Each structure stands twice: as C-alpha cells, then as structure tokens.
Amino acid sequence: MTASIDTRVDFAGIPLRTPVLTASGTFGYGTEFAPFLDLREIGGFVAKSLTLLPRSGNPPPRIAETPSGMLNAISIENIGVEAFLAEKLPALPADVVVIASCFGTDPSDYAKLAARLSESSRIAGIEINASCPHVKSGGIEFGQDPILLADLVRRVRDASAKPLIVKLSPNVTRIGEMAEICQSAGADGLTLINAVQAMEVDVETRRPVLWNVLGGLSGPAIRPIALRMVWQAARAVDIPICGVGGIATAEDAVKFLLCGATAIQVGTINYINPQAAAEIAQGMVEYASRKGFARLADLIGALILPER
Amino acid sequence: MTASIDTRVDFAGIPLRTPVLTASGTFGYGTEFAPFLDLREIGGFVAKSLTLLPRSGNPPPRIAETPSGMLNAISIENIGVEAFLAEKLPALPADVVVIASCFGTDPSDYAKLAARLSESSRIAGIEINASCPHVKSGGIEFGQDPILLADLVRRVRDASAKPLIVKLSPNVTRIGEMAEICQSAGADGLTLINAVQAMEVDVETRRPVLWNVLGGLSGPAIRPIALRMVWQAARAVDIPICGVGGIATAEDAVKFLLCGATAIQVGTINYINPQAAAEIAQGMVEYASRKGFARLADLIGALILPER
Amino acid sequence: MSPPKPECGPPIRALAEVLENHREGGSNHRLTLAIEGWPGAEPGQFLMISAGAVTAVDRTDPLLPRPMAIYRGHARVGSGPARIEVLYKASGRGTRLLAEALPGQRVRVVGPLGRSFPPPTASTRAFLVGGGTGIASLFELAARAVAEGAATRVLLGARTAADLMGVGDFGRLGVELDLATEDGSVGIHGRVTDALRPRLEQPSDRHTIVYACGPTPMMRACSELAAQSGARCIVSLENNMACGFGVCLGCAVPVVGGGFSLVCRAGPIYEAGDVAWQGLP
Amino acid sequence: MSPPKPECGPPIRALAEVLENHREGGSNHRLTLAIEGWPGAEPGQFLMISAGAVTAVDRTDPLLPRPMAIYRGHARVGSGPARIEVLYKASGRGTRLLAEALPGQRVRVVGPLGRSFPPPTASTRAFLVGGGTGIASLFELAARAVAEGAATRVLLGARTAADLMGVGDFGRLGVELDLATEDGSVGIHGRVTDALRPRLEQPSDRHTIVYACGPTPMMRACSELAAQSGARCIVSLENNMACGFGVCLGCAVPVVGGGFSLVCRAGPIYEAGDVAWQGLP
Ligand SMILES: Cc1cc2nc3c(=O)[nH]c(=O)nc-3n(C[C@H](O)[C@H](O)[C@H](O)COP(=O)(O)OP(=O)(O)OC[C@H]3O[C@@H](n4cnc5c(N)ncnc54)[C@H](O)[C@@H]3O)c2cc1C
Ligand SMILES: Cc1cc2nc3c(=O)[nH]c(=O)nc-3n(C[C@H](O)[C@H](O)[C@H](O)COP(=O)(O)OP(=O)(O)OC[C@H]3O[C@@H](n4cnc5c(N)ncnc54)[C@H](O)[C@@H]3O)c2cc1C
Ligand SMILES: Cc1cc2nc3c(=O)[nH]c(=O)nc-3n(C[C@H](O)[C@H](O)[C@H](O)COP(=O)(O)O)c2cc1C
Ligand SMILES: Cc1cc2nc3c(=O)[nH]c(=O)nc-3n(C[C@H](O)[C@H](O)[C@H](O)COP(=O)(O)O)c2cc1C
Ligand code: FES
Ligand code: FES
Questions:
Q1: Can you give the pTM of this predicted structure?
Q2: What region, left, alpha or beta, does residue D174 occupy, with left being phi > 0 and alpha being psi -120 to 50 degrees?
Q3: Do the bridges between strand C208-213 and strand C232-236 make them parallel or antiparallel, or are there none, so unpaired?
Q4: Is the ipTM reported for this complex over the cut 0.90?
Q5: pLDDT tier at C9, thresholds 50, 70, 90
Q6: Ligand 4 test: best mutation among B218, B222, B247, most atoms within 8 Å of CB?
Q7: Other beta carbons within 10 Å of B176
Q8: Ligand 3 centroid to A103 CA: how many Å?
Q9: Cα four-point dihedral sign A183, A184, A188, A194
C-alpha cells in the first residue's frame, strides 16, 4: 500500500528519489554513514562545505549541548576541493545524488570552486554556503548583506551551469528579501536555514563554552524558526526551497513541505541517529498513504490556511 | 553565609533589590502570583504590555508547545492603561518595583502611554515593547527598522522623565546596531530579547497550529540566542542591559550577567514554575557565595575571555 | 461574564508522590497522587501536572505541564497528605510520558485551579453528560449532586466500551447511569447525546441542569438540546494552557457579546449560553 | 598521524536492554547492557549511549548521546545478545539521567567506535595508569595484557576510595595493582602519577609501555614520566562528542605538527608524543 506512493521530486533541476537529503556538515563526505544506512534510501546528500585549499578548523571546544539543540563552531574544516574530487567522490555509489557546498571568504573563491566542481559529472548541484554563522570573514557577511549576496550569487551563476542553490543565513531581518535577491541573481533553488548564531557560557569556569565564543545553534530547538523562514521565503519566490532546521521525524519533514519546501535536509539528528534520514524518508511515505496523497510532491505547499 | 552577599543592582536608574525581574506578558499584573511567591523576593516585574485602550487579543489557538519552548500569538490582550492605573497598580504592595510596558501601532500612542504612566509615582520605569513579533502593524516594524526605532525612542523620551527601557526584537540582522540607536535616542537601558518569530504546523489537520499562523518562540530553546544578543549588545552600548530569553535556573541567570547584563527577566518559566523567579534569585546568591563574589553586581561582565 | 461560583483556592505548587498509576482499558489511566498541604478542591476544578515524572535533572522537553481535572479527592487521613485521583488518556507526548510514571516517583502539580460547577440542590434535576476524557470532570459533581439529594442521572459516552472512564465509580454512587458507545459495545449504540435527547423531550425548567464535559461538538449539542427543552446547561471547556492560573492568556475562548474569557481562570466552567461556540478551536 | 591500529567494527546502532544499573561507591555506576548483533570490540573502543533510558516518546533534551568506554564485553552465550558493561560517573545531566535507567528499560547505543590500544605482547612491560573514570578504558586492555603474558602492573587513582572504579575486577585478573587516593583513604596518599614515578626511575626501553587514561593533566604527566625514562606512552583522550563516528568534527584535538585529529575516529587512542598537550581543552 505504501509502496504505491510516488516519492520523487525535482529540486532546482535535480531529480530526487525522495525529498529527504542530508545537510552539509552533518553527513561528512557520505561514506561515514555506510555502516548505518544505504545511501540509496535517501534523496542524496550535501557534502561538507569545501574551500579551494584544505582548511583546518577551530581549536577545541568546538561543540556544546543546549536545550533541545547544540552549538558548533567548527569553522569549515575540510579536505579541500581537490582531495574531495580525487578521493571522496569516487568512493560513492554511482547513483547517489551528491550536492557540493562551497565556502569562501571572497566571491572569486566561490566562483573558482563552483567552476572546478562543475567539471565533475558526479556533482548534481552546487550549494553556496553564504551563511556560516561563526566565521568572521566569509559566510555571515555574504548571507546578511543584500548587495554582497546578490554579487556573490551572480558571480557563481556565471561560473557554473549546474543547478545552483543558495543556502541562506537565518540571522537576518527579512528572509523573504534575501530569497528574492538570490532568485533575481540567478539561483535555481534555496536552502534554509543554516544554524542560528548563538552563545553558551560555563558558569564554573566563567568562560565561553566554545573556543570561538560564538557558534551556530542547531537541532530541534530551532525548528519553529526554520519553518517560519521557509514559509516566508516560499511566499517570496518561485524557485524551489529545501527546508532544514531541527528536523527529527517524518512529521517534522512533512511540516516543511506543507509550508512550501520541495525537499528537506536532515542535519543534527544524523549525529544522534545515523539512520534518521532513511527513517524519515520511510515515515513520509507512511504519512502520505495514511492521508491519501498519491505523491509526496502533492504535499508541497499543501498547508490549509484559515480563509479570512 | 549567603546572607552576606549584596544582591542590589541599579538598572537604568531603577534600584533593584535583586537583578531578577519577571518579563512582560509572563507575570500578568503581578497579583496572580500572590499564592506562589512574595513579590518582595524578586527585584520587581514588568507588567503585561499596555495599550491606550483595552485590547482583546487573537482567537484561539494562541499557544503551542515546541522542543524546549513554546509559541505564542496573544496579540497584546490587555485591560488598557486606565484600568491598569486604577485597578491593578493599587493592588500591589508599595515596595514592589513595577515597570510598565508600552505597546502601540504609532509612535504617538507610545508617547501618550508613557506620559500617562509617568504621572504615577508607582511606576519605576517605562519599557517600550518595540518587538512584539506577531502583530502585523506595530511591534515588529519599530524594532526591526533603525529609522522607525530611533524616532519612536525619541518621541517617548520627550514624553517621559521616567527611566526609559527599550525592549529589542531578536528578529534583526545586527542587534548591536539597534542597541546603539536606542542609546543615542535617549534610552536609559535595554531589554532583550523578545520572542523569536516562528511557526508550527499540525500535520493531522495540515493547518498552522496558531490562529495567527506566526507566533513568538520563547523558553529554554532560545536561551543561547538571547545570550549571544545580550553579549553583542553589551559590547555595543554603555547603557545597562536586562537579559531575557529562556532563563530557567540561577546558572542561566548568571550567564546573562557574565555576558554583560545588569539584570535579567524570567519569562516562560513562570508558567511552569510560578516560584521560579524567587528560586533563581536565591540560587544566584548561592552561586556568588560559592564563587566568592561579595556582590551580585560583581558578576556583570565578569566573563573571562581567552586572551588572543 | 459573571463566574458561576467564586474560585476556590488558593492554589499550591507541590511535588506530588505517585501512589498508583495504571492502565484502565484502552489508553485510559488512573493516577493517584499524595499531595502535601492540599487546600481541597471543588467539583470541576483542575490541576496542572508535569508531562511525566520528575527526573534526576529537569528536562525542558516536553516543556509545559498538562491540565487535568481532579477526578476524585479523598478525605485526608489525619494530618497526612491528601489523596487525589486523576483519570487521563495517554494520547500525546506528555500523557504518554505521564503513563510511565511509577509509584514512588514524583510529579509536579499546581492546583487546584479554575472555577467549580454551580452546585445542584435538592430541587435540581441533574443530567451529567460526559464524553471521552470529559467524564473525569464529572465524578465529584455527581457525588455532590447525590449528597444534595438532587435527582441525578449520569450519561457517559465514548468510542468503545474500553474507552469509558470510571463507570464503576459512578455506579457505586447509586446514580442512574446511561452509557453510550459509538460501536455499541456497551450501552446504547450511538453518541451520548442520543442518550440525552429522549430525557429532554418534555419541556423542562431552569431546575433541570445539563452539566456537560467532553468534545466541543458534544457539549455544543448538549447546550442545544437543553435550550430546546428550556433546561439550563453548564459546560466545562478545554483549551491549550501554558500556566493554568491566568497569566499567559493562552487559553482564551471567545464569549457571547465579544471579547475572550480565560478558560483557566473564568472557566473551565461556563453557562453554555455564554460560550461563542463557533469561535472555539 | 598513523593510527596505532586499524579500527574495529563496523559499528551498529542498537536499542540495548538494561540488565543491571547500580551504584558502586561514590557516584560511580555499573551499567550492564544486552546488545543484539554486537560485532565485538577491541580494548579501548567506546560506545555512544543515549543520555538516559528511552521513554515512550523521544525527548530532545538532553539531545546528545554520551561517549562511554566499553569497560568489559562478555563472550556471547550461543546466539544470544552480547553482554557489555560500562562504568560511569553520574556527574552531569546525561549521566545522572542514565543512572535512573532501570533493568528492563532500554538505552540507545552506537558502537563500537574509535580505535583500540596497540596490544601488549609477551615482551611488553605494561603499566596501565587509570585516573577517575579513565579507569573504565583500561580493563579490557589489562585482560589482554595478562592473556598475552605481558608483565602487567595496573595503577589506579582517584580522589577517594569510594571513587575508585573496578578495583575488584582488576584484582581478579591477577595483575599487580597499585592504588592511590588524594585523601589517602586507600593505597598511597597522593596522585596515581606519584605511584608511577618510582616504577619508571630506571631507564627503560620501548618495550616498556605506559598506557594512560584519565584527566588530561594526569595523562600529560604520565607521558612526561615515560619520556624521561625512555618508555613508550599511549593515552586515551576525551573530548566533547556529538556523533562519535567522524562526521560532526566536534571532537577535534590539536596534534603535533599542526592540524587536528578526531578523537572519535583517529583516537581516542594516541601515542602521547603525537598529542599537542598545550592545546587540549
Ligand atoms: C481544564 C482541563 C481539564 C482536563 N482534564 C483532563 C482529564 O481529566 N483527563 C484527560 O485525559 N485530559 C484532560 N484534559 C485534556 C488534557 O489536558 C490534554 O489531553 C492533554 O493536555 C494532552 O496532552 P498530551 O501530552 O497528551 O498531548 P500533546 O500533543 O503532547 O500536547 C501538546 C500540547 O497541546 C496541549 N493540548 C493537547 N490537547 C489538549 C486538550 N485537549 N486540552 C488542552 N490542552 C491540550 C497540551 O497541554 C500541550 O501543551 C483537560 C484539559 C483541560 C483544559
Ligand atoms: C572516548 C570517551 C570515553 C569515555 N568513557 C567514559 C567512561 O567509561 N565512564 C565515564 O564515566 N565517562 C566516560 N567518558 C566521559 C563521559 O563521556 C562524560 O563524563 C560524559 O559525557 C559527561 O556527560 P554528563 O551528562 O555527565 O555531563 P553533561 O554536563 O550533561 O554533558 C554536557 C555535554 O558535554 C559533554 N561532556 C561533558 N564532559 C565530558 C567529558 N569529560 N568527555 C566528553 N564529553 C563530555 C557531554 O557528552 C555532553 O555533550 C568518556 C569520554 C570519551 C570521549
Ligand atoms: C557541527 C555542524 C557543522 C556544520 N557545518 C556546515 C557546513 O560546513 N556547511 C553548511 O552549509 N552548513 C553546516 N552546518 C549547518 C547545517 O547544515 C544545518 O543548516 C543546520 O545545522 C540546521 O539544521 P539542523 O538543525 O537539522 O542541524 C553545520 C551544522 C553543524 C551542527
Ligand atoms: C505568552 C507570552 C506573552 C508575552 N507577552 C509579552 C508582552 O505583552 N510584552 C512583551 O514585551 N513581551 C511579551 N512576551 C515576551 C516575553 O516577555 C519574553 O521577552 C520572551 O518570552 C523571552 O523570554 P522567555 O524565553 O524567558 O519567555 C510574551 C511571551 C509569552 C510567552
Ligand atoms: S492557561 Fe495561562 S492564562 Fe489560562
Ligand atoms: S564526535 Fe563527531 S566527529 Fe568526532
């Protein structure tokens, strides 16, 4: 019975087996999850953000636990684009959708990265991480400044013909405005939200818990914020949206589709339950069949609003 | 031994018995807590936001539970300034510090409210709610727009000689900038944060959980966001800050002082534990004596930063 | 709206001990608590109960306590703690966690809260109509009605026999008892309102009082049946609650004549005619 | 840095049954789990354990699982589940909740994770130095050392006698056992490193291996004592962890020569000389 549900969606020109992807920085380079789930059970994954050169992140402590969430200040530690293309990509099954995430401190870094990644037929799309909330130079400025963001998206658009997805920062006054800017600058889709800038303190030592002082809040705690932003962005633009932020269950994922997301990403929960993404994909099918939807795509924007 | 700790602080010209206040909208008009705690055990409270005329809020559902938090869309239901002055204020013990919160859809509403409230010697200070996250007209625009906010604060400043506190919205890109604007416009102090704009959906009905669709997220879930914003605001301005957002324990309260807050407000937790504010005030004394601080005021800004 | 009866209290906050907590058919559970310093309660009042037993460290998820009717309060033995019974349905997150609480564990409670039912008198013809978990709000009222010598008939309905709460307890009160189940597994085959309808066919006066607690459509139907026969109808409403004592304003329901009323403070007991039914969630 | 030994595995995710979970002096607890499909583990590997027993509904606070050493793994009886023991200190929120888990309840585990200790051989002179909860990482290593016929001395230290973990178990292995407590309540009065120092006074070669697990200052002191006498030193590091299997990058520690190493994946076992001690949290 559940078998009869059509789970496919098209996100920004990328055909997905199911709307369930996994979020950048929470799924490594994919291979780490081999012991726990078959990558073919999910729609695909966004790899850890890449920089042109290998980058080693912040000193410890890098993470902390908070109510229904966690803080992180990793600072985009990654093996660099070349090692990714040479070592990580070939290790993945051919039919796994891989979206590459780009990070840089200058628009030209992003453009170079996008161009290089676009040479690989294994890359289904490019996600611009313009929103890393804890790196002074880079992320946060791009994602928070309309002019910088528009310029960044245009530069990357010119550099790559791949489906282009911009991942937005939640640390802004008007998310809808940022979404519009990306759309007019040529983005094919949007991902939101990245972690919310936050802080935690240890009262015993009287010091910030994170070496970086500030970090990004993620996990179920931020889900209602992410859902609101996806809802607002979906009403502001026509390009498809991938919802991310605190998704822990199939019901959570359904909420994002109802609010207008075409796909979703599972993030922090992968750490706690490395099988979560596959369970969520299965649970969405059960929800759809229980509710009489023939296609998961029919859930997109299917929120019923009180008529007033 | 704990008796020897000096708990007094001065917040924006208001002498407080202890830095622990309760937040507007979470403590009613004070009298509701009589069965549970002696108002003299806390520093005082901020009354439910007032409008010039009585205001009845949104239809149900008005609240919903979320991971380590709750959503609300009450829409400033209140008895109006006149009934507050005539009925509620006289019912309170003379030595309880009462801060009045003003809300309006136009700067002149705020100015009129502040002027009227300033006529009462029982009002220790005025808090401008420029941040109500779910009322279309009003709150959110003031708190999110630098020009509107500066104008609002100036207008109220001219209308009242009472200590003037501006309560900031967290739904902004740069909280420090908003803090500076309030300082230069004549505010004596700042309160932050108000609830974070958010949304929740019921997958069974496929409808928004709140009648208002959008609501404000409060509770422990947002504490790391509030702490970050207090930290950023404290570094941007010289006027004192009252920290609010997810405070549930004395340790939470201490974190806000360490990050630069002069006082704190207990909000959502009052609903779950109507004795929380008094317990937090007591717990802060225990912390101070355990850590060898003679005065709670010595905790303000006492965060130890890694020297780099 | 003028409250039917001044509120009882003052409420206390207590760390109650779980004496018993067991399943009673379907997903219904009976929780018996020992509460120190309990001030006593009136029929129709409720408690806010933490969503699950108190653990070594406070967990902030689920965050909010749950409102639960005081099903039955037992006379205090000497100076000991009061024994309070709650009947609840393990449905969502909080009540399913509450169902795991073991004897000896503790749950946080705040109460008694809300206003109570206007009491029946010897001259009252009382119909107590309970649907689903709404039944839990009616037991103390039934006991009071019997004590006052009112002609008392209790009508209880649920989806199926296993879901019917406290039938045995009501039976032992010696009231006239009508049962209704939607699947016909016990009592009449249909809704509890189908059991009420024939009872109100003759025109009745204000001495006839229909006390209704259950799903909103059921209470609304009761109020219409009562209105048709000229009887008075008192209902006990439900709504989401954060505090239970009138400060969050989260539990407001629209009332006739405009504006809102706080279910936790002005309610949960209302004259059916005062409720703006179409505006309920 | 080349890992001391290829990692064992592949890890599994399982819903383990709590067989026993009781206090053993101070705030130390012994948790015995039954785990289906357990692939076996090597000395020094660890588990990620949910912060408290699994409840009727998943609670998101506390959110993260806790890393815990596999103290002892028991040979599987036939095709039944493996029996795994964990010794832990109920200190913070998660471990205090874990201490409330009752036999029959379940906890979520992911493991075995991390790399194991390079095994001692018959020619090894092994000093196993454990401090506080670090003791828990050494039992399987001690058993292996004895089995290999290595000259094995175990040195365990804690604040006070009650805090010393697993002393009886180590005793039964028949190893030479030195105890140290900071209050002198048992063994020598002082730190475990004070017990180690005299043992390393004679210059020793690389066949002498100091295996150290405990507070960072203790491990650092061990590595210095070992270096002075020319012995090899292997340590088991701790760090905050979100995942335990190499994807969150949260557990990184600085290593000699620059850059970071993931404690959960490249570690927790390290050659003391590879660790950039001054950079540890
Ligand atoms: C005055 C009053 C008395 C009540 N007495 C009883 C009783 O005696 N026995 C009983 O089984 N139930 C009773 N209820 C209903 C009970 O409060 C809800 O069933 C319960 O809150 C649901 O919680 P949950 O954890 O199962 O659901 P969840 O889905 O976890 O609840 C999520 C949130 O929604 C709120 N909520 C969900 N359903 C309701 C509801 N029907 N009414 C109010 N809040 C709700 C919860 O309180 C919580 O804040 C009463 C409600 C009120 C207002
Ligand atoms: C590889 C490894 C093996 C371990 N083996 C054991 C063992 O066998 N027995 C034992 O008692 N302890 C062991 N620990 C330490 C144990 O993980 C922490 O004591 C535990 O996480 C503290 O959790 P809490 O809930 O008590 O503290 P909380 O204050 O609730 O923890 C808050 C957060 O900080 C993290 N944290 C706090 N202290 C530590 C720490 N020392 N190390 C890592 N994370 C920490 C927690 O994991 C959690 O994410 C081990 C740690 C590691 C890394
Ligand atoms: C430890 C950690 C590392 C992350 N690294 C990245 C990253 O490299 N690039 C990126 O775009 N987002 C990164 N994120 C953000 C997540 O992709 C996601 O947007 C955010 O965590 C919210 O989703 P969640 O609540 O489901 O985790 C990271 C998140 C965490 C917790
Ligand atoms: C139900 C509810 C009503 C509120 N009403 C007001 C209000 O009238 N005026 C105001 O300034 N803040 C109001 N707030 C915001 C709180 O004062 C506080 O800023 C916010 O909840 C964050 O603090 P907390 O997490 O401790 O609750 C309200 C919050 C809640 C939950
Ligand atoms: S529940 Fe808070 S006011 Fe009624
Ligand atoms: S704990 Fe996640 S990478 Fe090591």
A1: 0.97
A2: left
A3: parallel
A4: yes
A5: low
A6: B218
A7: 16
A8: 13
A9: negative
